[in-house]
Amino acid sequence: MAWRMTQLLLLALVAAAWGAQSGTPQARTDLLNVCMNAKHHKTKPGPEDKLHDQCSPWKKNACCSVNTSQEAHKDISYLYRFNWDHCGKMEPACKRHFIQDTCLYECSPNLGPWIQEVNQSWRKERVLNVPLCKEDCQIWWEDCRTSYTCKTNWHKGWNWTSGYNQCPVRAACHRFDFYFPTPAALCNEIWSHSFKVSNYGRGSGRCIQMWFDPAQGNPNEGVAKFYAETTNSGAMPQGIGPLLLNLTQILQRWFLG
Ligand SMILES: *[C@@H]1O[C@H](CO)[C@@H](O)[C@H](O)[C@H]1NC(C)=O
Ligand SMILES: *[C@@H]1O[C@H](CO)[C@@H](O)[C@H](O)[C@H]1NC(C)=O
Ligand SMILES: *[C@@H]1O[C@H](CO)[C@@H](O)[C@H](O)[C@H]1NC(C)=O
Ligand SMILES: *[C@@H]1O[C@H](CO)[C@@H](O)[C@H](O)[C@H]1NC(C)=O
């Protein structure tokens, strides 16, 4: 009787191991539908019916609160006290891209495959090399060419003595295309490689869209799933093999001994 049960259990375990190895690649579910552990993110994504203006595409499922979505549209907001107008007024056509970038960063539950741990006072996790769709980067760069800035990396090196970022004394204001000669220079360098502009375009399912029409659903869900599968397939089957072997030994001893 005991032997029969062990046989059945072994059969079940072998079937499970076989399924794990031969089935379609499993997306690491811990990379999907998650919020990073950062300054203003919710702990888990969920619906937010009242998300403000440019952040509203994420209202069905978001990592940002309504308050964060409102603050994302303000100058020197309570979020980061960041001053977009550090070299005179940023053109509104340019600023809307920075607002959209803030909405993506704060609200998106689809950045899991690019989340990295960091040792920073204001956040425990960041994103690195998010594959931004090439058109989203191109249009951002074109709309900002004629605005002014004084730095290439906007994460570091500001003078914060007044409570918001100002250009340090030796950093001169120039047009964006002086500090960012190409779209890739802008998208990759500005936030220390949070983005890595993709060769893929909008609608490809292979790059993250900063702008999307929510009526068609959130295209970034599928993109995250794709990268969660491709970057981590194989990890599970390799890890589960020795564990199952061990488990069968334990079960055999338990039933027979
Ligand atoms: C968001 O919350 C912060 C902190 O509680 C508050 O200072 C700020 O005024 C709020 N913003 C809005 C738009 O309600
Ligand atoms: C983070 O940095 C602090 C101070 O630099 C250090 O004490 C701490 O051990 C670091 N933590 C990790 C996880 O690297
Ligand atoms: C920082 O800004 C303050 C004024 O806001 C100025 O007095 C100071 O010299 C600046 N420091 C540097 C290093 O740029
Ligand atoms: C098997 O399980 C035992 C504890 O029951 C553990 O000490 C051992 O490291 C395990 N071996 C493997 C290969 O997982």
Structural description of this entry:
The chain has 257 residues and is mostly helical. The chain has one domain (25-236). Helices cover 39% and strands 6% of the residues. It is built from eight helices and four strands, in the order H-H-H-E-E-H-E-E-H-H-H-H. The strands form two sheets. It has a two-stranded antiparallel ribbon with strand order 1-2. It has a two-stranded antiparallel ribbon with strand order 3-4. Strand 1 (115-120) and strand 2 (123-127) form a beta hairpin. Helix 1 (2-22) packs antiparallel against helix 8 and helix 3 (92-107) runs antiparallel to helix 4 (134-144). The longest helix has 22 residues, at 235-256. The radius of gyration is 24 Å and the shape is elongated. The model has no long low-confidence stretch (mean pLDDT 89). It binds 2-acetamido-2-deoxy-beta-D-glucopyranose (4 copies). The site of one 2-acetamido-2-deoxy-beta-D-glucopyranose has 3 residues, from helix 8. Belongs to the folate receptor family. Keywords: Disulfide bond, Signal.
